């Protein structure tokens, strides 16, 4: 499965690394890629192992808002 999260407040390369790292640490997430220009995060994951809500929490724990 693939989903796109809209994340607010990511402006530099460290933001990108923090958010991608937090998502990739979740069991069931195969890849995460932040586009800083648009704030979109493309996530590939295995259904049944992780939920979009889990992803939202992981990103919010890093201090960013998920739309
Ligand atoms: Mo860069 Mo992101 O200095 O919150 S880490 S803007």
TrEMBL record:
Name of the protein in question: Copper chaperone CopZ
Annotated keywords: Chaperone, Copper, Cytoplasm, Metal-binding
The keyword Heme appears for this protein: no
Top-rank lineage group of the source organism: Bacteria
Cross-referenced SUPFAM superfamilies: HMA, heavy metal-associated domain
Location, primary (coarse class): cytoplasm
Organism name: Virgibacillus sediminis
Domain HMA: 1-67
Classification lineage: Bacteria, Bacillati, Bacillota, Bacilli, Bacillales
Gene that produces this protein: copZ
Cell compartment(s), UniProt: Cytoplasm
Listed Pfam families: HMA
Listed InterPro entries: CopZ, Heavy-metal-associated_CS, HMA_Cu_ion-bd, HMA_dom, HMA_dom_sf
């Amino acid at each position: 499965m693939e989903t796109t999260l809209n994340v607010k407040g990511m402006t530099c390369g460290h933001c990108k690394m923090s958010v991608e790292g937090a998502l990739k640490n979740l069991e069931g997430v195969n890849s995460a890629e932040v586009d800083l220009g648009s704030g979109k995060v493309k996530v590939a994951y295995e259904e049944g192992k992780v939920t979009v809500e889990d992803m939202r929490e992981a990103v919010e724990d890093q201090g960013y808002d998920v739309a």
